[in-house]
Amino acid sequence: MRGILSLLGLFLIAPLWASEAPEQLRLEAEYPVAGMPDGNLSGLAYCDGELQVVSDRIDDRIFHLTPVGGLMQAKAEPFIAPPPPPSNLPWGVRARGQLLSLVRGNELDFEGISCDSLGNRYLVSETHAAVLQVPRAGEPNWLLLPDALVRQARASGMLLNFNALLEGIAVDLAGERLWLAAERERRGLMVVKKQQTSWRCVGSCVLFTEGGTELPPAPSGSERQIARDFSDVAFFNDKLFTLERLAHRICRRTPGKGVVERCWSFVEEAMADTRGYGMPFGVAEGLWIDARGAWIGLDNGGKARADGERRPIVWRFSAPKDGWGAK
Length: 327
Known about the structure:
13% helix, five-stranded mixed beta sheet, single chain, mainly beta, globular, 40% strand
């Protein structure tokens, strides 16, 4: 009888937990980004004491951001990427990526950036399912990722659809563990570990995968179900943090299995009257977490928001009231 009562208690409590609204993050500041031709801020990281961003329309530059008044002024750091390694993506996906590159005028489609304690930057290419390392000094090079990475991801239902491939990247400070986020249909997290000069799957590369759809937040006014997504991943204090663009939230997850522990919402700030873009799926693309808060970069694709601003935007959010480690 005691066991039955315990089970009943769990059923009664579960809906209360499920319906509990996540804490709303509060916006400290927002900065339009000046000096990024073509805009399309697709990834963001805080490296060597400054914000650095990439664009999915530009293959040969990292942009360093400096606050100037109420703006972030972008200064380009040029580099030359060597030819990308052979892709394990299927022919049809690769062919559509090549067609898109002809339309856009660039090939690599960088969707995320991260960095280690030595100042190495890691850029993830969506069209090639590859990672380019750009050192502080020296020539860029493509990481030797294991063939099993894409094979296992596809076997788990990820990386099957064009323009729904790798969307985020995070690396630990030692530069020895690298996490990648698959965007949608299905979304998921993968990890590889460095062994000498190459990278390996230790066990499975796939930590977590999830399908399904959900409604956009109520303020969007949309009643259309949209695929769940990840638009970036960050690593801080031995935890993973996923940027969930559709849901307008950040979720803390375990680095070993990707299990969600807690989420925080930024929907109230993102969907304030002056900040809306009229797109139900959101535009948050870049994430960086530190002890004092979160940086989020927006890729608006040149579309004007409600107040007429067309430039990319960087938001600075305060940390949750009990910190990122709160239960």
